[in-house]
Amino acid sequence: MTLRLAFMGTPDFAVPTLAELIAQGHDIAAVYSQPPRPKGRGMALEPGPVHAFAERHRLPVRTPLSLKGEAEQADFAALNLDAAIVVAYGLLLPKPILDAPRLGCFNLHGSLLPRWRGAAPIQRAIMAGDAQTGVMVMQMEEGLDTGPVLMAERVAITRQTGGELADQLSRLGADLMVRTLGALERGGVTPVAQGQDGVTYAKKILKDEARIDWSRPARELDCHVRGLSPFPGAWTEIHGERVKLLYAEPADGSGSPGVALDDALTIACGDGALRLVKVQRAGGKAMAAADLLKGFAVPRGTQLV
């Protein structure tokens, strides 16, 4: 059955869900997204991925700075929605917004709630060394990711980077949202309240925590590097230059933390070692570590900080 929807999202992660809702024939009354941001050397305003996708499909786009004002809330209510679908939107929804659609507002969240509520659930799951994660469709309420869950899918975390896992979950989540809406309209799904045990919060990734602390064990730094790849990217200094570490693997060896154990970028950690696999110099492109070494020697004994 066709539903009249508002879609609320901003980054790449949200685009597959919007695309699937369009493909299923739902009536997208409006797309809400974060306002365009200045980017590039010229700092020209550039719309986010959802905004750009919506414009290509000739959907009306709204980019309010806030939804707290009475005018914005009245405009939203006037859409006469069956539901609002929220995927990484970036703004809090006040109660008048949450209450406006006939069925409510539904959020696609990239974790197994109540674990990793908040802004960066995918990165935090990898950084913490979690064995699994998933996506959940949650009925939204005023709390931060506290609403009851309607449907969920689980996936194993293996050697993915944050970017790879986000891509996987975004595709899985798009299908999950469509199935959830169908079940909801048929009355075939019952929201289940989140448990009180195991609550954790996925706070926003701060720039300072991206720097590698070589005194940590290799197994932790492996998760740290993968979780922050490709953005913002874990980093270290080599010969006084900042270098992002986009992929690494645990390796045999030991030594003083941060010291190169060979000429092939195997670096000692607090326990064990990491072999750097994919890196990026400041202002450059991502490359294999072997290619970096062709013009940027890092001999055995070099101290990384």
Task: Compose a concise summary of this entry.
By secondary structure, this protein is an alpha/beta fold. It is built from 8 helices and 16 strands.
Helix/strand layout:
Elements: E1 4-9, H1 15-23, E2 27-32, E3 37-39, E4 44-46, H2 49-56, E5 61-62, H3 70-77, E6 83-87, H4 95-99, E7 104-109, E8 117-118, H5 121-127, E9 132-139, E10 149-156, H6 162-186, E11 201-202, H7 218-227, E12 234-238, E13 241-251, E14 266-268, E15 273-281, E16 286-288, H8 289-295
Parallel strand pairs: 1-2, 1-6, 2-5, 6-7, 8-11
Antiparallel strand pairs: 3-4, 7-9, 9-10, 12-13, 13-15, 14-15, 15-16
DSSP, total strands: 16
Low-confidence stretches: none
Order of helices and strands: EHEEEHEHEHEEHEEHEHEEEEEH
What is the 3D shape? elongated
Could you list some keywords that capture this structure?
five-stranded antiparallel β-sheet, 8 helices, alpha/beta, 16 strands, 305 residues, seven-stranded mixed β-sheet, single chain, 27% strand
